[in-house]
Amino acid sequence: MSVTEEEVPADRVVEALEILLRAPPFGRSPKLARFLRFVVEEELAGRGATVKAYAIATQALGRGSDFDPSLDPSVRVEAGRLRRALDEVYGQHPDGLAIRITVPVGGYRPRFEILEAPPAPVAEATPDVADASEAAERSHAAVAGFTPRGQAAIIALLAGILLVLCIDLGLTLSARMAEPGPAPRGVASRGR
Amino acid sequence: MPRYFFDVMDSTQSVPDEAGLDCRDLGEACRQAHALIAEAMSGPESTRIDWCAWRVEVRDEARGLVFTVPFLPR
């Protein structure tokens, strides 16, 4: 899968968030689930640029108002775990996950990218009704065992044989009609 | 793959790992511990944390201690 940089609609981000939160790493760690939900919802609310460790600690991780990010590395540590949990989930390619959510190193602000599914193999494509007649023609040609050029050559050959047969028949008939009476010299010589 | 847990702590505080991480072997578990340390030390806000006191304790699925990685080499 690849990603595109276009702006991602909020409803698609929320849909991806809910899928991620049902994945095993977030099921095992409610703390990481709250962290992810908090930063994504803050970003969607337009407050992503102002999210700090203190807000994450007190509003998502259950820390008290005395939390001091300059002395306590817990938000930094949980951010690292969150990145690995996201990598683990995306590595398993869960169904329906069309948006990639990342939290780049050095901050807590999430990024959203649209995941592009790889093109489906041609062999798996199902022909629609509009292609049915073309498919039938191809099938007929395949059954006959000849290409269109081969078919034309055979038709020309058969037409040539038919022409020769017609000429021969015509000459035979005219020779028989000439037998009862004296045949004109020119015709008799042509019949031999 | 076995799952390892990366508990981060100093002498008074602990940031236990709830989720854990699947690692192919101990080498990958060691690399993940070092990556966790590097990211924790490069956070967006300035700190007065004494990183010498912090370490990662890598534990197996039974929560038995496998090895320890200090934040700063002694």
UniProtKB/TrEMBL annotation, chain A:
Transmembrane segments: 152-171
UniProt keywords, alphabetically: Membrane, Transmembrane, Transmembrane helix
Protein name: Uncharacterized protein
Organism, as annotated: Methylobacterium platani
TrEMBL record, chain B:
InterPro entries given in the database record: DUF6894
Pfam families: DUF6894
Upper lineage: Bacteria, Pseudomonadati, Pseudomonadota, Alphaproteobacteria, Hyphomicrobiales
Naturally occurring in which organism (per UniProt): Methylobacterium platani JCM 14648
Domain DUF6894: 3-71
Protein name: DUF6894 domain-containing protein
Domain of life: Bacteria
